[in-house]
């Protein structure tokens, strides 16, 4: 039993004395904090990006009239404009979200 403890102690000390072990003792907590900070920044900026999204619903058939309900940060608007007109409008506003129903072909 004494020999096993001696081997365990030797293995532990050889690993702890390595330069990589000592560096990682200090580096790993710093990396975890930095990653948490970065995730927080991404979450904050994604909330600002997603403030008010407007989805134009082209529904010439009338099947989906009143079926879409607004939720926070997402607003549905029915329109009879053509997809081409909406694409041009979206390019000007730097956004594009489109739902189609009915026949366009």
Give a quick summary of the entry.
The protein is built from three helices and three strands, in the order ααββαβ. With 105 residues, the chain is an alpha/beta fold.
Q: How would you describe what is shown here?
A:
The chain has 105 residues and is an alpha/beta fold. 54% of the residues lie in helices and 16% in strands. It contains 3 helices and 3 strands, in the order ααββαβ. The protein has a 3-stranded parallel beta sheet, with no helix packed on it. The radius of gyration is 29 Å and the shape is rod-shaped.
What is this structure's SSE topology?
Blueprint: H1 2-16, H2 19-49, E1 53-59, E2 74-79, H3 83-93, E3 98-101
Parallel strand pairs: 1-2, 1-3
Descriptive key words:
single chain; 105 residues; alpha/beta; three-stranded parallel β-sheet; 3 helices; rod-shaped
């Amino acid at each position: 039993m004494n020999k096993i403890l001696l081997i365990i102690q030797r293995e532990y000390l050889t690993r702890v004395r390595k330069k990589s072990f000592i560096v990682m003792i200090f580096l790993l907590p710093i990396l975890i904090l930095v990653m948490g900070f970065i995730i927080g920044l991404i979450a904050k900026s994604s909330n600002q990006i997603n403030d008010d999204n407007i989805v134009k619903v082209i529904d010439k058939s009338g099947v989906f009239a009143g079926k879409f309900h607004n939720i926070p940060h997402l607003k549905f608007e029915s329109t009879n404009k053509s997809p081409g007109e909406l694409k041009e409008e979206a390019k000007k506003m730097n956004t594009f979200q489109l739902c189609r129903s009915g026949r366009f072909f």
